[in-house]
Amino acid sequence: MAETRWLDDAEQRAWRGYLRMNTVLGAALSRQLQVDSTLSLPDFEVLVHLTDVEDERLRVSELARVMRWEKSRLSHQVTRMERRGLVAREECLSDGRGAFVVLTGAGRDAIEAAAPAHVDAVRRLFFDAITADDVDALAGISQRVIARVEANDVCPS
């Protein structure tokens, strides 16, 4: 068994800063959405993925995979969103076992209403605090870490 490679002080500071930033930023963006719209952050995330595809529908399994959520978590979230008319489930006619999550008109209206204030908050809280070089560095770091995690993921969603 390999010896543990402990984090040095700089790595520890960077890692804990990243975790703290993720927590406080997520909480702030969640509060902003709740104040400015009827959407939660998980609602918004589901709706974003549906608006990102041409026919505004995704198989439940595909949506769970791209969101990196367990299917049961997604199922509960979709059920809550269905009750509010934001999405609908439709059977897959070519495969009786599968279902689609489909964006509704109300879901489109909700994300279109919420997006401007949300983007403003993302810009104000995140992008206005960093430089263009930071943006480039973050994009590169994100791509490398995601590729590493995905290459080593033994239990993908």
Automatic annotation (TrEMBL):
<dbReference type="InterPro" id="IPR039422">
    <property type="entry name" value="MarR/SlyA-like"/>
</dbReference>
<dbReference type="InterPro" id="IPR000835">
    <property type="entry name" value="HTH_MarR-typ"/>
</dbReference>
<dbReference type="InterPro" id="IPR036388">
    <property type="entry name" value="WH-like_DNA-bd_sf"/>
</dbReference>
<feature type="domain" description="HTH marR-type">
    <location>
        <begin position="11"/>
        <end position="147"/>
    </location>
</feature>
<dbReference type="GO" id="GO:0006950">
    <property type="term" value="P:response to stress"/>
</dbReference>
<dbReference type="InterPro" id="IPR036390">
    <property type="entry name" value="WH_DNA-bd_sf"/>
</dbReference>
<protein>
    <submittedName>
        <fullName>MarR family transcriptional regulator</fullName>
    </submittedName>
</protein>
<dbReference type="GO" id="GO:0003700">
    <property type="term" value="F:DNA-binding transcription factor activity"/>
</dbReference>
<dbReference type="Pfam" id="PF12802">
    <property type="entry name" value="MarR_2"/>
</dbReference>
